[in-house]
Amino acid sequence: MISLPLVVLALLPYALAAPQPEGFADPLHIPLARRSRATRVANLPKIADALRVKYGYNPKNLVKRASSAAVPITDEENDSSYSGVVSIGTPAQNLNVVLDTGSSDLWVATSQCTTCASDIPPFDTSKSSSFKVSTSSIEIQYGSGAVQGTISQDTVSMGGFTVPAQTLLAVTQTTSNLIDDGLSGIMGLGFEVLSAQNATPFWVALDNANQLSASVFSFYLERYVNQANEIDTAPGGVLTLGGTNTSLYTGNIEFINMPSGTTPSYWLQEVSALTVQGTSVTIPSGSGLAAIDTGTTLIGAPTTIVDNIWNAVPGSQALTGEYEGMYAFPCTTDVSVTISYGGTAWAISSADMNLGSISIGSSTGPMSGAVDATTQMCVGGIFDIGSSVGSGPGTPSWIVGDTFLKNVYSVFRADPPSVGFAQLANGLNSSGL
Questions:
Q1: pLDDT given for residue 397 in this prediction
Q2: Keywords assigned by UniProt (predicted)?
Q3: Which of 12, 25, 33, 76 has the fewest CB atoms within 10 Å, counting from its CB?
Q4: In the predicted structure, residue 406 carries a pLDDT above the cut 80
């Protein structure tokens, strides 16, 4: 995961439970709030490398509830990631963790962490009467670093939903800058097979205990990537556990089952079609498997496909040095992209494709090739994750993060394993295309 700051929390008025269609009753709606910093462009190389490592690429090679409840959640650093408040222990300690559909472990930094930054609020295990620790220590690798700790159990709650003996990693060591500025850990929302602790993820434990009205959770993510000024606090969207919020989308949810032959691990979809500036980009057979990942800022795709994407944008050029694998384009250009998983072609806002301007310097700058010094260049939201498509079936060659997910209402369904997308309601994020 990337290193991100905490924001002041804010409730959303539209997070109240809305009437649900059959099969999606009584969910839990969790509002999101956000903040940003003006340093997002400088952080992009870290974000790209972190994503490559997270998915195994070598960076060098390129009981049903009767009511619902709202819980504050935060959106970090100009839409870089989204985090939520969980309560752990007895009495409960409130901690902010990144919500990540691209992993499956819950971990939090503890007061015993010797390498955690001073701005990380720790979980004090000594103050929880329900905390149980094992003798098993493990390390979990993330793109931007690693955490080490002891497999433990404690009471974990979110918005009134509670798992009394949730497995979590009580972290005692972490790589510098893995998390900071108010965040305490990560909650993985993937499937159990991805868990380094061989643990049942929190959302699955809720479902197994029949606490969820339906075996789904869904996201609406706000957009602030196009805000020039730093914003300390703002609404950031809604996470709904156990159903959908019909006030946040219009029309039907288009569910597509996970590709045949894959085992639920990541939330997988097959990229079947892509257009850039109105031109179709070929997706070779076997190179479209994608993980849908709320914990990732960008979209990562295979080398040849990314080359073709940016070749369709006049004036775009590959970046070099620490920005290797990323591309820049003239800031005056609106980059228009649509992506399909076998049904609707979903548009990505040009705002989400523009991650901010970059200084190209002189001949020693980050651009490859000649660049007109009078042209202001901006960094694009799709980058080269590498030429390898992983080792073995079910390994994604695309990672589809918030650059795409801000443009749709996304629903993650356990049975059958599938991901659904719907058009956002009027007045919410719009593609502008």
A1: 93
A2: Hydrolase, Protease
A3: 25
A4: yes
Contacts for 353 with CB less than 8 Å, ≥ 6 apart: 335, 337, 380, 381, 382, 403
Report the alpha-carbon distance of residue 35 to residue 183 in Å, rounded: 13
Calculate the CA 310 to chain-centre distance: 23
pLDDT digits (tens, 9 = 90+) for 367-405: 444 445 557 999 999 999 987 545 455 789 999 999 999
Which two tokens mark 97?
């963790």
The residues pairing with 83 across neighbouring beta strands, listed in sequence order, are 74, 98
Distance in angstroms (rounded) separating the CA atoms of residues 155 and 136:
19
C-alpha to C-alpha distance for 28 and 16, rounded to whole angstroms: 9
**Residue count (the chain):** 433
Q: How far apart are CA 109 and CA 120, in angstroms?
A: 8
DSSP string, 236-258: EEEEEESS--GGGEEEEEEEEEP
Query: How many Å apart are CA 343 and CA 328, to the nearest integer?
Result: 30
Domains and CATH numbers, the chain: 13-246 (2.40.70.10), 248-424 (2.40.70.10)
pTM, rounded to two decimals: 0.85
What values do phi and psi take at 327, rounded to 5?
A: -130, 155
Helix/strand/coil percent split, the chain, to 5: 15, 40, 50
Helix (H) or strand (E) holding 364: none
Beta strand ranges found along 299-388 (DSSP E): 299-302, 317-318, 327-330, 337-340, 345-348, 354-358, 377-380, 382-386
Residue 225: the pLDDT is: 81
Task: Give the whole-angstrom CA distance, residue 363 versus residue 272.
Answer: 39
Rounded CA separation 78/47 (Å) = 13
d(CA 128, CA 277): 55
Which two three-digit tokens encode residue 327?
């591309």
Active site residues: 100, 293
Q: Which two tokens stand for residue 310?
A: 């940016």
Flag the least confident range among 22-31, 52-61, 160-169, 359-368: 359-368
- Which tokens sit at 229? 């000024």
